[in-house]
Amino acid sequence: MLENFTRKLAVVALSLGLGAMAGMAQADEPLKVGFVYIGPVGDAGWTYSHDLGRKALEEALGSAVETVAVENVPEGPESQRVFEDLARRGNKLIFGTSFGYMDQMVAAAERYPDVKFMNATGFKTAPNLGTYMIMADEARYLEGMVAASASQSGKIGFVAAFPIPEVLRHINSFTLGARSIRPDATVRVVWTSTWYDPNVERQAAESLVAAGVDVLAQYQDTPSTGQVAQEAGIKWTGFNADMSKFAPKAWLTGTVWNWGPIYIDTAKAVIDGSWKPDPVYGHMKDGTTELAPYGEEVSAETREKVEAKRKEIESGAFAPFTGPLKDQDGKEVLASGQVATLKELLEMNYFVDGVLGSAHGK
């Protein structure tokens, strides 16, 4: 798996084009690129993975770019002040790494039409505002397969941040993957209403352990869920980055991001004048999302099943959201053989059959 991931990254690097790079290096002034982070770089998860992407941008484009990052910027009015400050300081490309920055980025983009803005996971655009995301629900499906294979009871717990379409899609895909291995598997969701809060995440994970789950998963920014799993003697799948070192005895695998290619390609487009506010989506096939290394207790049989399904996903032979598919109330949302459209994926507002909990965050 790691060798395959490395090969993908090499292909991505080669695709950058040495000729274009040479032209960039001759520019009189570097492109100033600002990054606005919802949490600290040391969260070991979401923000950490974005900062790895920023560093990849610096390494790939060298003196053609100059980057700056602002950490711990809350959603709401304060974020707009940060965006506008970065624009005033000469940053011509600004990335916001949270769905909750969306309206503030729209406002900042209107005030600074000569600056290009990019919002991660958002859906609102403008002539100088685009969106970007990695469709990690593909890797999430595989992660769910691993989780179900490790569960003795079929009861899996999921610590989740906010009920936005991106998070709902991840939970649903994880559940579909789990049920492909064990049809009676259930995924119980506890909402935290925070992206980054180790204490709240811990409390949510502990409540799931008390409810009887024997595997924990997460859409959160810290490894607190895994630490609870290890203390309880159960298993865990992480998220955002390879978190295995924080709870190695509980570790199974996890979905990871590789933001570097998106940041590199976007900066190149701004530099050469080809940038457009079109949505950008990464996939497993291009190496922007993958599974982290397996834990020692993941069996060879499970690895073979996951690898086979991964190949189907990358070839286009299989999509996680393929009908027949029902929501948790028994209503058909996809007919037999029907594959969810991108619009349907981005607007997902329901839980699939097998998820326990409310899709509205209650």
Describe this structure in words.
The structure is a single chain. With about 350 residues, the protein is α/β, with parallel strands linked by helices. The chain has helices spanning about 1-15, 20-25, 45-60, 75-90, 100-110, 135-150, 165-180, 200-210, 225-230, 260-270, 300-315, 340-345, and strands at about 30-35, 65-70, 95, 115-120, 130-135, 155-160, 185-190, 215-220, 235-240, 250-255, 280, 290, 325, 330-335, 355. Mean pLDDT is about 95; it is low at about 1-25. The strands form 3 sheets. Strands 12-10-9-8-6-7-15 form a 7-stranded mixed sheet, with helices on both faces. It is about 40% helix and about 20% strand.
Name a few traits of the molecule.
Rossmann fold, 19% strand, 6-stranded parallel β-sheet, 12 helices, disordered N terminus, 7-stranded mixed β-sheet, 2 domains, alpha/beta, 362 residues
What is this entry, summarized?
With 362 residues, the protein is an alpha/beta fold. Helices cover 41% and strands 19% of the residues.
At CATH level 2, the architecture of the largest domain is 3-Layer(aba) Sandwich
Q: Sum up the overall morphology in one term.
A: globular
The CATH superfamily of the largest domain is identified as Response regulator
Report the CATH topology name of the largest domain. Answer: Rossmann fold
Kindly report the spatial arrangement of strands forming the biggest sheet: 12-10-9-8-6-7-15
| CATH classification, class level of the largest domain | Alpha Beta
Radius of gyration: 20 Å
Structural class: alpha/beta
Quickly count the helices. Answer: 12
Q: Compute the separation of the termini in Å.
A: 38 Å
Protein name: BMP family ABC transporter substrate-binding protein
Keywords: Signal
Signal peptide: 1-27
Domain ABC transporter substrate-binding protein PnrA-like: 32-311
